[in-house]
Amino acid sequence: MNDQKNQVLRTKKPRTALSLSWNIGKTAFKLISQHRTSADPKSYAVWYEYASRKNPELRMAMDQILGHERGVTAAELRQLYDAYVTENRDAEAELETISQAIQSEVAGAKSLVTEVITNTSQYVSSMDKAKGIIPNATTPDQIIEAIDELIEDTQSSQASAQSIQVALQSKHDQITDLSGKVGELRENLKRDSLTDFFNRQKFEELLTERSTEALTNGYSLTVMIVCVKNMQDLSLTAGTDISEFVLKSLSGFLTKSVGDKGVCGRFTGDELAILLPQSAYADAGKIAKQIIDELDHFKIVKKPSDDLVGYIECAFGGSSLQAGLSASDLIRRASEQATQAKFSHKSSVKFDLTNHQAA
After folding, report:
1. 221-269: per-residue pLDDT in tens?
2. End-to-end CA distance of the chain
3. I want to staple 214 with a disulfide (CB 3.0 to 4.6 A). Which of 1, 99, 221, 313 is the partner?
4. What residue spans define the domains of the chain?
5. Does domain 200-342 have CATH number 3.30.1340.10?
6. Please, are residues 277 and 262 in contact by the beta-carbon 8 Å criterion?
7. Can you list the alpha helix ranges (DSSP code H) found in the chain?
C-alpha cells in the first residue's frame, strides 16, 4: 500500500511542477500580448519572472513602469532583463568562481609557508647537529666532514627558500589579479548595459559623496534629469520599437556635452541623469541647451529609404544643492520638473531656472 502511495506521489509532483510552469508561461504570453511587447527570449524571460512573483525587485520596477500607463519599451525590457534576470545571476556565479579561485591560491600560499617553517626547522636541526660534532671532533677529518654536511644543508635550504619565494610571489600576483577582477566585476554591475551609464544606486552613492564635499567646501552642485518626450511617436512612425536606439543615441550626446565635467546615470525607463559637481544651476541650463542644439541636427531616418522618422525631443529638469537636501531630494525635485516639462505641449523645452538658486 505504501509503495502505491509513493508511486502516486512520484508521478504527481512532476505534473504539479510542470502545470505551475505552464500556467506561468501562459500568463507571461498574455502579458506580452496585453502590453504589445515582442516575444523574443529576453522579453519572455522578463515577463515569466514577473508572472512567477519570485522576484520582488523586478515586480516593483515593472509595476513602476506600468504605472505610467504608456506601455513598456524594448529599452525598458532590456534594462529589466540585465538588472534582474540574467546579469546578477551571471555575476553571482562569476564571483563565486573567483572566490573559489582566491581560496585555492590562499590555501597554496599557506602550504608554502608551512614548507618554509619545515625547512627552517630542518636547517636548525642540522646546525645543532654540527654544533655538537665540531667541538667534540678529535681529528681534522671529522671537522671537515661536519662542515661539508653543514654547507650542503645550507645550500639545499637556500635553493628551497628561493623556490618557495618564487612560488609565493606567483601566488601573490594571482591573488592580486583575481581581486582586481572582483572589483571590475562589481563596478560593471553598477552600470547600465545599453548606455554604459551608472545605474541609479551608484549614481545616488556618488551624488551623496559629492554633495558632502560640496557643502564642506562651499561649492555649487546641480543634478539634471533628462527624459525623452516623444519615444512612442518615434517608434510609431518608424513602425517598430526604436527605444533602444533612441536612448543609446541620446546617451552619446549627453556624454559629449557633459565631458569630464560631470557623471551620467540611467534610471528606470527613459530617464537619464547628470551630476554636475562645482556647477551652478545656470551652468546646467547651458548644457541642456547644448544637448537640445545637438538633437536639433540629429535626424532619425528609415533605412534604406532614408525617410524621415523624426527628431528626439527631450524634457529637462534640474535641482541645485541646498543644505538639508538629501541625494534623493535632489533627484526627486529634478525628476518632478522634468516630468512637468515632458507633458507640456511645447515643441522644445528650455531649462527652467525659476525658483532655483545655487548653493
Report:
1. 999 999 898 888 898 899 888 989 999 999 999 999 998 889 999 987 7
2. 80
3. 221
4. 2-72, 90-188, 200-342
5. no
6. yes
7. 2-34, 41-52, 56-66, 74-80, 87-136, 140-188, 200-217, 231-238, 243-258, 281-296, 327-342
